[in-house]
Amino acid sequence: MTFRAHILGAAAGGGLPQWNCGCQNCNLARAGDIPAQSQSSVAFSATGTDWAIINASPDIRDQMARARALHPTDLRKSPVRSVLLTNGDIDHVAGLLTLREQQAFTLFATAEIHQIIADNPIFNALNPAFVTRTSVVLDEPFDLVAGVSARLIAVPGKVPLYLEGATVQTDLVGEQTVGVQLEAAGKRVFYVPGCAALRPALKARVEGADMVLFDGTLWQDDEMVRAGLSQKTGQRMGHMSMSGADGSIAAFGGVQIAQKVFVHMNNTNPVLRPGSAEKAIAEQAGWTIAQDGMELEI
């Protein structure tokens, strides 16, 4: 039994290139000078035949077409047995609409995330005769897919953009933003694509892990402001930056983890450029920068 992760999409919401963005990275990707990346999603398997997808990206149709392991094995029979949502962001739930084609799978999420789905009638396209919606209690183990046990962990974050009110708490801890602890074949893996801060409890929890796939949205907190693309910082969006004294590279310093992988990179992040100084710094600190189609054996 081999525990495997397949990066379906390495980018944050909007992908690379983002349709309306003329930043350096997006222009390079359009020209084919750097690899394009689709929106955040990862598939896991311990058997090679039964797969779970974490977060259903708007790009999921093309992502699955490029991932041979996820190709249908018979007429209307997919190796995807389950889908797990870590929050209600559009870039993590919109792909559910692509998965409406009378395919049986279990949809796992916290009760609060399930409520977001239930409140939007467009998701009624997921026929309950085929899609079983299962609510998961925080920190309670459950079987995600054959051979893989999972737990959901509350991490600091915020509600989806479309649910923001006049006041936004960006480090809310509860059921709206979760990380995932996965165990299979004697290995322990964490998938945390969105996190506003690495608190001591989470740092202690990931100590000794075989792999951590972690939020790599921005290189620096005011990256989008400096680029003239937004007035929002990473913290305002509920994400840690990679660099700086309060960044994730520093926060993970000294934590013993066999493999560290950044996922969910925004289109502005310079680590997406092969040969950039920022990518070299991250790699020297022991991090792998995820790319679409990357296969990781745990």
- What is the count of structural domains? 1
Return the structural class. alpha/beta
Measured on Cα atoms, how large is the radius of gyration? 18 Å
Instruction: Provide mean pLDDT, rounded.
Output: 95
**What count of helical segments does DSSP give?**
8
Compact overview of the structure:
With 298 residues, this protein is an alpha/beta fold.
Overview of the structural elements:
By secondary structure, the protein is of the alpha/beta class. The protein has a single domain, classed as Ribonuclease Z/Hydroxyacylglutathione hydrolase-like (Metallo-beta-lactamase, Chain A, 4-Layer Sandwich). Helix content is 17%, strand content 23%. The protein contains 8 helices and 14 strands. The strands form 2 sheets. It has a 7-stranded mixed β-sheet with strand order 6-5-4-3-2-1-14. A 7-stranded mixed β-sheet has the order 7-8-9-10-11-12-13. The N and C termini lie close together (11 Å).
List keywords for this structure.
seven-stranded mixed beta sheet, 23% strand, Metallo-beta-lactamase, Chain A, alpha/beta, single chain, 14 strands, 298 residues
Record the SSE blueprint.
Layout: E1 4-9, H1 24-30, E2 41-45, E3 51-54, H2 60-66, E4 80-84, H3 90-93, E5 105-109, H4 111-119, E6 131-135, E7 142-145, E8 148-154, E9 178-184, E10 187-192, H5 200-206, E11 211-215, H6 223-226, H7 248-251, E12 260-263, H8 277-284, E13 287-289, E14 295-297
Parallel strand pairs: 3-4, 4-5, 5-6, 10-11, 11-12, 12-13
Antiparallel strand pairs: 1-2, 1-14, 2-3, 7-8, 8-9, 9-10
